[in-house]
Specification:
Layout (H helix, E strand, L loop, with lengths): L21 H21 L1 E3 H8 L3 H14 L2 E6 L9 E5 L5 E7 L4 E6 L5 E7 L8 H17 L7 E8 L3 E2 L4 E2 L10 H9 L3 E5 H12 L8 E6 L3 E7 L2 E3 L35 H13 L6 H6 L6 H9 L3 H25 L3 E5 L7 H14 L2 H4 L3 E4 L6 H14 L2
Parallel strand pairs: 4-7, 7-10, 11-14, 14-15
Antiparallel strand pairs: 1-3, 2-3, 4-5, 5-6, 8-9, 11-12, 12-13
Length: 413
């Protein structure tokens, strides 16, 4: 089986024009990227400020900045305050120099975005009924959506720095391989999409991508040990440990939904018995509510069924926020298992924060309060008291923002 045939290389447009020996080009590329990295992460800076972090001499930085202005990748941005002597020129990224495509693949929906180099969303679309299938037809539909998006905002393929893709299941991000979904292509999903789209592709598991989003743009910023739970139809876990994303040996770390909770329980879709995901997940919550309604249980959602509307996780969360007692009670029951599972993680990893994201995070206090109660009951107080449990501010967008963070992290690595 031919895998990973296309090597992942991320380059800015100007880097394709650099001349010289391989080593000379690599050295120059590194010097340029130190400057661009500083401007990307800090916004606006003078040459003197860049010198402090780039670890290059002031004359060299000044010369490189002139080159980058010529390439168009950075722009002049006014005059700074004087700290003695002449007021310095300020520089910033050119947000329109290139763009990043973000793709968040879910079991039943697809989120698509295009970002500029200032992390701003310039295009965003959600496709609510986009069922994930392990087929080339699904990928062709995905590619079509991406191409239409780029055409709509008049961005040529050469202007795409890369596409970051978030997908559920087992993902070998290093080699661009998926083992749970979209595993049909012999060459691997990354190589397949790269060949079809014509620009670099980065893949990772949705929970780890969510963690990158939280680290770059959310509540995990400036924190070193954070667990990020992706609670949607399933349960995923992204771990920031010692300030870095933890992926494990093969990139499979974080399968929190498949820890054993009930040895006498039901069969999980992973093939094992009694996984946490068989007791607490969006999929289970929806199923239990449907079963209750069919037995005559009163609920706002009974009207959905009577009117022939679909009872999905989005509808359940809306019902919970509207005060539907039956939906709230079912969520509370699930929170006990979730709390018990988190206690194990707290005792093992001693995180400073646990962030709940994904569709269920929109339930707000209705999920934070009961999970906190069960954590406090079962965890050692000295450890749990140092762990903050919070809802994500990014909610459903955490993984989508993480696709942008993944691309920029890779290019500045």
């Amino acid at each position: 089986m031919i895998k990973n045939e296309i090597k992942l290389e991320l380059e800015f447009l100007y880097e394709k024009t650099l001349e010289g020996t391989v080593n000379a080009k690599k050295r120059k590329q590194d010097q340029y990227r130190r400057i661009i990295s500083h401007l990307y992460y800090n916004g606006v800076a003078s040459i003197a400020e860049i010198v402090k972090t780039a670890k290059m001499s002031q004359p060299l930085v000044a010369s490189l900045v002139e080159d980058l202005l010529g390439f168009g990748v950075i722009l002049e941005n006014g005059i700074g305050e004087s700290i003695g002597g002449r007021r310095p020129n300020l520089y910033c990224m050119n947000p329109e120099y290139q763009y990043v495509v973000g793709v968040d693949i879910n079991l039943h929906t697809l989120n698509l975005a295009v970002f500029d180099l200032n992390n701003q969303l310039i295009y965003r679309e959600e496709f609510k009924e986009f069922e994930l299938e392990n087929s080339s037809e699904y990928c062709q539909a995905l590619i079509g959506k991406i191409n239409v998006a780029l055409d709509n905002i008049n961005i040529g393929r050469e202007k795409v720095l890369a596409a970051g893709i978030s997908i559920p299941g087992l993902v070998d991000a290093e080699n661009g391989l998926t083992h749970t979904h979209l595993s049909f292509a012999e060459e691997g999903l990354r190589a397949y999409l790269n060949r079809k789209l014509g620009f670099p592709i980065l893949l990772d598991n949705d929970a780890r991508t969510m963690a990158l989003g939280e680290k770059a743009f959310g509540k995990a910023k400036d924190k070193k040990n954070v667990l990020c739970l992706n609670l949607s139809n399933g349960i995923g876990l992204g771990m920031i440990l010692n300030g870095e994303l933890h992926s494990g040996k093969n990139g499979f770390a974080g399968e929190f939904g498949h820890i054993l909770i009930d040895p006498e329980g039901t069969l999980c879709n992973c093939g094992k018995i009694g996984c946490l995901e068989t007791l607490t997940s969006g999929k289970i919550l929806v199923r239990q509510i449907k079963e209750g309604i069919e037995k005559g249980q009163e609920s706002f959602l009974a009207k959905y069924q009577d009117e022939g509307k679909k009872i999905d996780l989005r509808a359940v969360v809306d019902a919970i926020l509207a005060g539907d007692q039956f939906a709230i009670d079912q969520l509370n029951k699930m929170c006990e298992y979730l709390g018990k599972g988190l206690v194990t993680l707290i005792h093992l990893l001693n995180p400073e924060m646990i962030i709940i994201g994904g569709r269920l995070a929109q339930a707000g206090k209705y999920i934070i309060s009961p999970v906190s109660m069960w954590m406090n009951k079962y965890a050692m107080d000295k450890i749990s008291s140092e762990t903050e449990l919070v809802n994500s501010d990014l909610l459903d967008d955490a993984a989508l923002m993480g696709t942008m963070a993944n691309v920029m992290k890779k290019i500045f690595k």
